[in-house]
Amino acid sequence: MKENTLVLGASAFPHRYSNRAIHMLRDIDEKVLALGKKEDFVRDVEILTDKSQIKAEEVDTITIYLNAHNQEEYREWIKSLKPRRVIFNPGAEHVAFAQELQEVGIEVNFACTLVMLRTGQY
To answer: How far is the CA of 35 from the CAs of 20, 31, 32, 84, 105, in angstroms?
Structure first.
């Protein structure tokens, strides 16, 4: 069953917004998967570096913390996961990719995951 949030562009550095998102998601007991450039942990969440470790049936929401250029290598993979929604955080906006996702029935949000969590919109 798809219940997890995948944080794409995850970082173990506390000052990074992706790190804060992992903390806030875990604070509300959300199940979190994390994919980043360096293996590490944020609380009890392992940051994976190999996208093949993530299974499509696990991913409900993807929240993206990569700029449009760095998303390119993930575009087809994200579509193959068939998440319910994808959140493009500030700085990660990618209009063409968002349109592709909407065309295959994936909900798209241009929003800040941290604000969504704080305001109960997540």
So the answer is: 14, 14, 10, 18, 23
Q: Which of 10, 13, 85 is nearest to 50 (CA)?
A: 10
Q: The whole model's pTM is what?
A: 0.96
Q: Encode pLDDT of 62-93 as tens digits.
A: 999 999 999 999 999 999 999 999 999 999 99
> Distances in Å between the alpha carbon of 56 and those of 15, 22, 78, 81?
29, 20, 9, 4
Domain count, the chain: 1
Nearest alpha-carbon partner for 36 in 46, 26, 44? 46
Range of the domain at 91: 4-118
Tell me the pLDDT band of 19, cut-offs 50, 70 and 90: very high
Instruction: State residue 70 phi and psi, 5-degree precision.
Output: -75, -10
Mean of per-residue pLDDT scores for the chain: 96
Q: CA dihedral in degrees (16, 69, 96, 56; nearest 10)? A: -70
Query: Phi-psi category of 43—alpha, beta or left, where left has phi over 0 and alpha has psi -120 to 50?
Result: left
